[in-house]
Amino acid sequence: MKASLSSILISAFWLAPASTASPLKGASNRDTPGPLPAVSAAGFHDVVTAHSIPMRRQKLAPSATHPALQRRANFPARLRNVYDVYYIIDLEVGNQTIPVSVDTGSSDTWMVQEPYECVSFWWDGPGTKPNCGLGSGFQGNLSGGIIPDLPPFVRSYVDGTFVSGFYGRENVAIAGITAHNQRLAIVNQAYWHGDGQTSGLLGLAYPYLTSLDGSDQNQPPYDPVFTTMWKSGAIDPVFSIALSRSEDQGNRTGRENPSSGKIEESYLALGGLPPVDVDEATWARTPIHGMMAVPQWGFETDEKGMYIIKPDAFVVEKKAGSKSSEDDGAVVTRNTTQIPVLIDVGATLSYLPKAIVNPLYAAFDPPAQYMSSGGLFYAACNATIPRFGVQIGESTFYMAPEDLLRQTARDPTGEWCRVGVTDTDTPPHVLGVSFLTNVVAVFDVGKSEMRFAARNKY
Ligand SMILES: *[C@@H]1O[C@H](CO)[C@@H](O)[C@H](O)[C@H]1NC(C)=O
Ligand SMILES: *[C@@H]1O[C@H](CO)[C@@H](O)[C@H](O)[C@H]1NC(C)=O
Ligand SMILES: *[C@@H]1O[C@H](CO)[C@@H](O)[C@H](O)[C@H]1NC(C)=O
Ligand SMILES: *[C@@H]1O[C@H](CO)[C@@H](O)[C@H](O)[C@H]1NC(C)=O
Ligand SMILES: *[C@@H]1O[C@H](CO)[C@@H](O)[C@H](O)[C@H]1NC(C)=O
Prior knowledge:
The chain is mainly beta. It has two domains: 270 residues, Cathepsin D, subunit A, domain 1; 173 residues, Cathepsin D, subunit A, domain 1 (Beta Barrel), CATH 2.40.70.10. It has five helices and 28 strands. Strand 5 and strand 6 form a beta hairpin. The N terminus is likely disordered. One 2-acetamido-2-deoxy-beta-D-glucopyranose binds next to loops. Pfam families: Asp. It comes from Achaetomium macrosporum. GO terms for molecular function: aspartic-type endopeptidase activity. Keywords: Signal.
């Protein structure tokens, strides 16, 4: 199955040595976070951290292609236009502010450097001016210089786009935590189709993925930004993410929730929890699995690379109040097969096996239908929406109706809305934004586990 893997996921025959040999350092010198205990019934001790940064939710025009998708060549090309939202933070690089999209499915952090070359090709049409749609990039030289004797940084993608450049070192800061002299990739040539909001990508996955580089995909791994941060002792080896589903076109102040009076925001939080309301009784934990957990990838290592979990069950339930009252809340299917899924903030939809998703489509009233024009399943925008839950530990996290049937993603007639879960029997299976907007997700690299809690309705 190796041939089906993306450029970054082509299995190495020679397995790079682990870079994670150094034990987790105590966080004795870390800043004292806000004293908001979040000790749940299940006995977890996460606290809200002072090191949270708001993320801006950005909606993409249907034709634009999300950078995290471009990276991920192993998705079928027909799914290319499903990346209609992504999340942005302002990264402090040296003394400059660079907007980047946030991705938990890759590990490199890269950005363009001014002036960079944007190229176009004949297939863009004669006389087309190159337009990469990248925001302004890093200016001047990196304080830590260029790293000598490394192969160039090159990422190329199924849709023909690519970025290339080199590795250098600079201080990178997020929410008051600095990764000193961080290795990052600087791009000076690109063939790209962005929407002008970002100038690069922040990769939050494990060091292992950085080894899958170069022609042999076997470079020595390096510590990505988040790894450098926790190894310095500045934070515990934990980050967490809360995604809001409300639009926030670059307005950093967020929006007031009319029912709760709270500002709803998306956050990336370092070392603890983001400042959002969760249902404490729902905290659940599950281990993070190594690359081997997805057999189709062909890895022979159990090294951790991405945030792969195995939910305990997927459940489809009839909506309470549906026509035949004996069906109220009835479980349609409950699949307890342990399927490896990526937790991926870089994916708009969730991707699950047909055996799980087909009963969900059928449970819409009227049932969801495949639309060849959109290449995905759609249901009437006014359909009765079933309940769909992902069980992790003792808790079942239900996707909100607005995530299951996305009123903002319509077909050209305006009557059909996109279902937030899509079927694929080709791994990786993914729980993306359509799931993550319902929870706070804690990525605990130190304990090799993920924790989730349901967000209180916002
Ligand atoms: C940013 O840092 C560079 C290199 O250290 C320095 O030359 C420049 O003056 C700084 N700019 C600002 C606005 O501080
Ligand atoms: C960057 O480095 C190059 C080569 O070392 C040098 O010629 C150039 O003046 C530097 N640019 C800035 C803005 O410091
Ligand atoms: C940001 O949102 C707030 C609250 O909705 C609003 O008052 C403010 O004008 C917005 N700012 C910008 C720059 O759009
Ligand atoms: C549960 O899902 C798995 C994975 O797709 C599938 O192989 C299996 O047949 C499903 N089980 C049931 C009872 O539908
Ligand atoms: C849903 O909308 C369609 C038109 O888009 C309409 O014909 C139909 O009656 C509506 N169904 C319900 C249950 O409101």
